[in-house]
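cache lookup: miss for this entity combination. No prior model stored, computing from scratch. Input as submitted by user K.M.:
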Amino acid sequence: MQTYKIAILDFGCGNLFSISEALKYFKFEVNITNEYKKILESDVMILPGVGSFITAMNKIKKQKLDLTIEKFINTGKPVIGVCLGFQLLFENSYEFKKTKGLGIFKGDVLPFEKKITHSQTNTLNIGWNNINITNPNNLLDEQFKKTKLYFVHSYFVKPKDKNLINSYSYFDNFKFCSSINYKNIYAFQFHPEKSGFNGINIYKNILKILN
Amino acid sequence: MISHNNIRIIPKLEIKNLNLVKGVQFEGLRVLGNPKYFINKYFNDGADEIIYHDIIASLYKKKMLENIVSDTAKKFFIPLSVGGGVQTLKQIEDLLKNGADRIFFNSINFLNKNFLYDAYKEFGSSTIILSIEVMKLENKFLCFYNYGRDVSSYSLEHQLKFANDNGAGEVLITSIEDDGVGNGFNEKIAEIVQLNCKIPFILSGGFSKLEHFKKIFDVCSPSGIAISSAFHYSNLNQKHEVTSDGNLEFLKKEKKFLSFNNLTIQDIKKFLIKCGKNANI
């Protein structure tokens, strides 16, 4: 069987260990890297995500990784954004102050603040929740309809183009977009690598896209 | 379908010299076994998250947790919240690099008032948990540090406001007096937290029976419950390797302790649902 190479973009923040281990579990060859050549020669690129939007964008810009990301996207090979990596794909975030994202897609990253009715400023959405899949794809298929996935975030993505949306989830009674797909780009708000053995099966499905 | 958030059930493992230990009211630590064995149990029983607390790190400025954290993150794909002795942003980064998802700290806040805000700015509030260890002293609920060795002049209310104002994503509240006793969580503390905490909070200390949860839900809505003694003592007396440091006497005697037995994560979750709460089953 062919071994596929996956590059996890290392822009210098967060827990890249868990996502790397989840991919290795399915025998992918994983490189945590910021090197242009290594990234471009990979079969899949992952934009990981822990940390604050502004810190991540500053680190990406400083290393000119935004150009590498764009270049990889244009190759048509699969790109997967996870949590903050999902949010970075959009135009603007309002974490700390208005910050420009990668702007691959139109839309904003907004705080839960004031959207959640049950408490004053209880804005961290944390815990295991369902996703309501409205638009399944090869990565996020019907098998995950009943899977609970782990979320931890205070900001949510509001894509301008509703056709991108694969699934939505609820934070109490507030509905938000929990995953998108457009051509070769797949992205989730939840963490498959923290959602038990059911969750990491989402990464197993990368083989379906590649084969 | 409207789903209110699940209450997370979180086994809390206190670590000293690579062994799982547990005391009563932060004193008299007993070695209970190898943490690997317990983690395996808790993962299979449906833990929503794991807390690792290196309880001597603050006192002795040691850091031992990285290996345990990375071993766990390799085998089990669930959220890991890690703390104990955290004093620098670099330490947070190192723990995250080894597979921790969120970091909590307590003692450093009493030395450096800016640390919480700095950590929030660097890692985002979803990564940062403020830990509060609290006990009643002369009729006031005061915050302690250095694993209960030192008392601060700060009230519980003050420290909750500090968490709210400085970007903590969540608060971990441990009632020192109830820790390891198993008589239920302190309702007065729960009331104060509910009234003053504007961010999600995890309660820890005293939970050992299902009825303890019901009492607490009458006064507050925690985002998580952290449990140590009740889970650890329910899974005791298995033969596994421990390092030789620490008090091994209890483990050798193979006896039970208090009324801690047979509390499972699944039982608690079923009970939560019976109480009209949500749980991840």
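stored under new cache key. The interface with chain A takes residues 1-8, 48, 70, 73-74, 76-79, 93, 96-102, 120-127, 164, 169-170, 198-200, 223-224, 280 of chain B (CB under 8 Å).
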